[in-house]
Amino acid sequence: MFAIYKKELRSYFINAIGYVYVGVFLAAAALLCCYTTIGSNSYDTSSYFTMLLFAFIVLIPLLTMKLFAEEKKLRTEQLLLTAPVSIWGMVLGKFLAAATLFVGTVLVSCINFIPMYIYASAERLADEYGVTYIGPMTGEIVTCIVGIIFIGLAFIAIGMFVSSLTENQLAAAVITIVIILVMLILDMLKQYIEIDAVRFVINWVCVMSRFSNFTQGVLDYASMLYYVSISGVFLLLTVRVYDKRRWG
Q1: 248 in a domain, yes or no?
Q2: Angle at Cα 176 formed by Cα 172 and Cα 181, nearest 5°?
Q3: Overall domain count for the chain
Q4: 236 is a domain residue
């Protein structure tokens, strides 16, 4: 597994896709941060993280579309299937490589908050009780970062599964975009549904409704478990796809 992990992580930077992903991610994060917080003179970061989730519609497929589709296109898939590594090891190696690049880029994008802290360090609010510090809510920022990381990992698992079904990277990207888009806009669609049972189901599976707790500074363990479950289900589906090909 570790050999596949190193190979896949290195491949992101041998090809241009790794640099494109990191560049687009950091540029999008900087622009969104300027638009939602710095440019509007606000310390509220919930809008920034919510809009960043919608940027995942394009960013995550860019990261996952090549994971298995490229192997099929280059006819190297059989080498993976006959390698002395389990199917789970192969899938987890690729998943962890994509996850490492994703999490690393998310953490690097946190430098966008430095200007907010610099500006806030000199700002004080005087009242009858004295001087009170105002500035970015660190707890809210931390929980939101944790939330988008878990959501991003779930989306990566979905993108991996889609990539395992086709050898066309563009098709894998488009299908993943559609799936992520639907998962993100379900919360908007439920207001047009009058059937309570359907609305309850949509609210339960909706990514955005669960993320709202993180934007309020709450580390929602139930939502984290939900995102981990999505990751596990789609990793298992990917394993089943390749298990069938190995023995089929």
Answers
A1: no
A2: 155
A3: 1
A4: yes
Q: How many helices (H) and strands (E) does the chain have?
A: 12, 2
Residue 85 phi/psi, 5° resolution? -145, 145
Which range of residues forms the domain containing residue 50? 2-243
Query: Is 61 in contact with 172 (CB distance < 8 Å)?
Result: yes
Integer Cα distance of 190 and 208 in angstroms: 12
Burial class of 16 by CB neighbour count within 10 A (0 to 12, 13 to 18, 19+)? exposed
Question: Which has the higher per-residue pLDDT, 94 or 118?
Answer: 94
User: pLDDT tens-digit profile of 96-154?
Assistant: 999 999 999 999 999 988 877 776 655 554 444 455 555 567 888 899 999 999 999 99
pTM over 0.85: yes
Residue 150 resides in a domain: yes
Report in angstroms the alpha-carbon separations of 76 from 43, 45, 61, 245.
Answer: 49, 44, 21, 14
Degrees to nearest 5, angle at CA 65 with 72 and 240: 60
